Amino acid sequence: MYPMRLAHLTPVTLLLAALAVPAQGQGSGNGYLFGTPDVRFSLHAGYAHANAKSELFDFVIDNLTVERGAFSGPNIGGDMAVRLAPRVDLAFGVDYSAAVKNSDDRRYLDNNNRPIEQTTSFRRAPLMANLLVSLASRGRSVGSLAWIPARVVPWIGAGAGTMWYRFQQQGDFVDYQTLNVFSTTLESSGWTPAYQGLGGVDVTISPRLGFTADARYLWAKGNLSSDFRGFDRIDLSGITGSLGLTIRL
After folding, report:
1. Residues 6 or more apart in contact with residue 176 via CB below 8 angstroms
2. What is the CATH number of the domain that holds 91?
3. 87, 137 in Cβ contact below 8 A?
4. Are 240 and 196 in contact (CB under 8 A)?
5. Domain membership of residue 202 as a residue range
6. What are residue 237's phi and psi, to 5 degrees?
7. What is the pLDDT of residues 90-148, one digit of tens each?
8. For residue 36, which of 188, 139, 177, 182 has the smallest C-alpha distance?
């Protein structure tokens, strides 16, 4: 449960931290900042599409009333970016996505001629370090102190990190060798290396506040527990699109 709580609380913590940090030496002027911002905090939400292309997903789709799109779901996350150079940032981020689907067996009914029902959930929480490069100047200095942010700044990036994941099924299932119906909970969870490419655009709302739109493609595969013996590694890859707000410090 810890990774899920982390993913829910971290974006809020980042936002509160940004609001709480005193703006010493970098107060806001009339449309400008007193100095180039060194740190940015972002909070975003969107939709995480799961590729769901490994054997386990194929088996579930073939035998239960679940479509491949059912493994995609809402996403929330947060990032902290530190300026390394005028157009380069090092960013640390955490995201959390979840998909839950109720289903029944496609071909069989139980002894009372009722559907054989179960619930499948798929959750992912990547923790990533990313190098971000702005494709345009992020602002300009006026005099020795004032800094005016650019209106629109596109950017790209790449990163690596680790991902927590959990695939779980609860309910009634058919043993396809004996055709017996049994009740159980099947689960596999753990941590695995992850890599991503990302890109987006920042739009200035005020000197300290900005709007962000981004897309991230994540590559990862994870090992499965003995509950899913015989399947290859689970596919954790997919693309996430999100919108958010950024605070400059």
Report:
1. 63
2. 2.40.160.20
3. yes
4. no
5. 2-248
6. -80, 160
7. 999 999 999 999 999 999 998 889 999 999 999 999 999 999 999 999 988 887 678 89
8. 139
Q: Are 68 and 52 in contact (CB under 8 A)?
A: yes
Instruction: Give dist(CA 8, CA 78) in Å, integer.
Output: 10
Alpha helices in the chain (DSSP H): 2-20, 55-63
DSSP helix/strand/coil, 89:
strand
Cβ-based neighbours of 30, under 8 Å, separated by 6 or more: none
Number of domains within the chain: 1
Please give the distance of CA 149 from its chain centroid, rounded to a whole number: 28
Residues sharing a CB contact under 8 Å with residue 16, sequence separation 6 or more, in sequence order? none
Residues in CB range of 217: below 8 A, 6 or more apart: 196, 197, 198, 237, 238, 239
Q: Pairing relation of β-strands 146-149 and 152-174?
A: unpaired
Q: Which tens digit of pLDDT belongs to each residue from 166-208? A: 999 999 999 999 999 999 999 999 999 999 999 999 999 999 9
Give the CA dihedral 155, 158, 160, 161, nearest 10 degrees: 20
For 134, the enclosing helix (H) or strand (E) is: strand 115-134
Beta strands in the chain (DSSP E): 33-34, 39-50, 73-85, 88-109, 115-134, 139-142, 146-149, 152-174, 181-204, 209-219, 221-222, 234-235, 238-248
Tokens found for residue 163: 């991902």
Q: Hey, how many other C-beta atoms are within 10 angstroms of the C-beta on 90?
A: 15
Tally of residues, the chain: 249
For tokens 């980042």, the residue is 14
Q: Are 194 and 217 in contact (CB under 8 A)?
A: no
Decide if 32 contacts 150 (C-beta within 8 A): no
